[in-house]
Amino acid sequence: MNERQFGAKVREALEASASRLNPGTEQRLKAARLRALERQRIELSAVAAVGDAIIARISERAGLWRLVLPFAILLAGIAGVYGWQQSQRVSEIEEIDAQLLTDELPIDAYLDRGFQRWLKQSGQE
Amino acid sequence: MLRSVLMLLAFCVAAAAVHAAPPTKKASRLAWAELTADQQTILAPLKEDWENLSSERRRKWIGIAKRYPKMQPKEQERVQQRMQRWAALTPEQRAQAREKYRRMARQSAEKRRQMQQRWAEYQPLPPEERRRLAQPPAPGANR
After folding, report:
1. pLDDT (tens digit, 9 = 90+) per residue, B101-120?
2. Calpha distance A65→A58 (Å, rounded)
3. How far away is chain B from the Cα of A15, in angstroms, using its nearest Cα?
4. pTM of the shown model
5. Quick one: how far is CA B49 from the chain centroid?
6. Which of residues 30-49 of B touch A (CB under 8 A)?
7. Which of A101, A105, A116 sits opposite B116 (nearest CB)?
8. Which of A10, A75, B34, B140 has the greatest count of CB atoms below 10 A from its CB?
9. Which of B63, B48, B59, B66 is nearest to B23 (CA)?
10. Do B71 and A67 count as a contact with CB atoms less than 8 A apart?
């Protein structure tokens, strides 16, 4: 609270004295301020140039990855699904072949056309 | 841009190569000599043909060999008897038998028993009768 009041007082005093500066001093202060700003701008732009270059490099790579990564993920996905389906198919065939090989009815019963037709004729299927 | 396209192209080629490579590798990995002694004993009827089997079929037979110890003695005997015949069938014949088996397996136990009985009844039929049945019905015949 005290601090704020003090600040306000200082500002009042400065403003009052600023309006009382002679035109020559005012002119020189303005020129100095402009010079300082100019120099700051040069420094900033040099830093910015380096920064821009780094960011550009990174984003170039990121851009490449943005392009390649989805394809890589897609391919890996396709390969995964394909591999999984293959192994599913093999294990399904293994299951059914194991049953066919052990079943009481011999394999020929499923292959013999005469038997299949004979079954149909006698209305058993 | 050109670089990205080239890199993508290289990636695709590499992916294709990686994808194409495994089957040949796997086929050589499942050589007869690399089976366990137990597997060789169980799969003995296939020994002569083993090198001609695709890697998929080799894997399937190894799977069946793994199931083998859990089978009943009667079932084990059937597997031994049928293995060679089954492997010698054409892929189409095997597909046909599997399809028929699937359909049969969906039926009731009663129907399946009947089918076994019918097969037993069918066996004594004279060969010419069985051949006649196997022929497609003549055109115009009463179906």
Report:
1. 998 888 888 888 888 888 88
2. 10
3. 59
4. 0.58
5. 13
6. none
7. A105
8. A75
9. B59
10. no
